Amino acid sequence: MEIASKYDSQKSENHWYNYWLQHNYFHSTPDEREPYTIVIPPPNVTGVLHMGHMMNNTLQDVLIRRARLMGKNACWVPGTDHASIATEAKVVAKLKEQGINKADLSREEFLKHAWEWKEEYGGVILEQLKKLGCSCDWERTAFTMDDTMSKSVIKVFVDLFNKGKIYRGFRMVNWDPEAQTTLSDEEVIHEEKQGNLYYIKYQIEGSEDTLTIATTRPETIFGDTAICINPNDERFTHLKGKKAIVPIANRVIPIIEDDYVDVEFGTGCLKVTPAHDVNDKNLGDKHSLEVVDIFNADATLNSFGLHYQGKDRFVVRKEITKELEEKGFLVKTEQHLNKVGTSERTKAVIEPRLSDQWFLKMEDLAKPAIEAVLGDNPEVKLFPKKFENTYRHWMENVRDWNISRQLWWGQQIPAFYYGDGPDDFVVAETKEAALQLAQEKTKNGALTMSLLRQDEDALDTWFSSWLWPMSVFNGILEPENEEIKYYYPTNDLVTGPDILFFWVARMIVAGYEYQKQRPFENVYLTGLVRDKQRRKMSKSLGNSPDALKLIEEYGADSVRVGLLLSSAAGNDLMFDEALCQQGKNFSNKIWNGFRLISGWEITDLPQPEASKIGLEWYTAKFHKTLLEIEDHFSKYRISDALMAIYKLVWDDYSSWLLEIVKPAYQQPIDKKTHTALVAIFEQNLKLLHPFMPFLTEEVWQHIAKRTPAQALVIAKWPENQKVDEAIISDFEFAAEVVSGIRTIRKEKNIPMKETLELSVLNTENVSKDWDVVISKLTNVSSISYADAAVEGALSFRVKSNEYFIPMVGAIDIEAEIQKLEEELKYTKGFLISVQKKLSNERFVNNAPDQVIAIERKKQADAEAKIETLEKSLKGLQ
Question: What kind of architecture, by CATH, is found in domain 191-351?
Answer without folding.
Answer: Alpha-Beta Complex (3.90)
